[in-house]
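Lab notebook, bench 4. Still working through the backlog of constructs that have no structural model yet. Next entry is a single chain of 426 residues. Request: give me the structure tokens for it.
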Amino acid sequence: MKTFALKGNICFSEDKDTLRIFENSFVICKDGICAGVYAEIPETYQGIPCVDYGDNLIIPGLVDLHVHAPQYSFRGLGMDLELIDWLNTHTFVEEAKYKEISYAEKAYDIFTEDLKKSATTRACIFGTIHNEATLLLMEKLEKSGTKAYVGKVNMDRNSPENLCEKNPEEAIQDTEAWIRACEKFEHVKPILTPRFIPSCTDELMEKLSEVQKKYQLPMQSHLSENYGEIAWVQELSPDTHFYGEAYDKFDLFGGNCPTIMAHCVHSGKDEVELMKKNQVFIAHCPESNTNLSSGIAPVRMYLDEGMKIGLGSDVAAGSTLSVFKAMSMAIQCSKLRWRLKDQSLAPLNVKEAFYLGTKGGGEFFGKVGSFEEGYEFDAVVLSDQSLKHPQKLSVKSRLERMIYLAEEKHITAKYVGGRKIFDCKK
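Model written out:
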């Protein structure tokens, strides 16, 4: 690794309430780690290479805590359906195709190339039940430069026969073989991925818990997204009092098992308390929650309670890989929730949404998502010159417009862990 600087208008979150902006300044990367932001390059770093991005914005890389790679091929379809019908009509039909590696090759080429071009530098990704296809996805992500957790999905009930593993024993054998095959990757790591409680028997969950303890892996799944799903879990797990307890009874709900739970739209008081106690990360996916008519998560409450929370695109229930879109929709949905359902929870603001898409979600990866000293150096350079305007805008206002208006064409350069992924101007 090497030491270098980027120059531009630097924006990053210190916490959910504090947005730091340094105009015409330098952010320094030393061996993949941020060494600080300065008005002038300190004497210690005099002579290091510096890339001058002029008046462009430089922000931390964005973090997507929840995305389904095999679903990218049918985004924008089936949005008239609710969750369970959507899964049966579109999702499972598409995911079965990944048994054929030639299909997976074409589909994952598209997904990884588009993810590379986006502002996302870190992602937590669902694959399918297929070892070969999931490893192929990880290989493509590794080559693209994206840092990610990727999961081979586990399902052994309430799913189409061609997407159900034959039995828990064989499912675990396949999962362990996949974990061992992941050792060759440097930037892409495995994460245990039981799809959700309705698709996993207790026997499978028990064995996944053993695997988690053996390999010390993190875990990702879904929680309290839809009323029908919650009722179904209660039927399947009558010994539990709420959805999260159906994971927790297998030690797969935070604590010693770092956990991301997507959605948490309808989590009750007891579930929230357990998430908070166990430091479970919430992946808030506002676009998919509206598309599948699931509802709007009480993000304000989660933030005020000091819970771990970031954003997810949730493609293909979400239509785009853009975490900027997730930021803007998080704000918009929170306004609707406040106006129509609960005026005790104030809407999100721009600072909070930006925090969720950077440092909030980045915490799952460690010291990620900020330009504070000691954080891993993920950076995205944004050029907003094509967005014409007659008035003079502050850097803060320009950042706000990027949250609402940014497209792929505005992303000029991208760095992950200090490695340049691309630079359109160089």
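Notes after review: The radius of gyration is 21 Å. The chain is about 35% helix and 25% strand. Flag for follow-up if needed.
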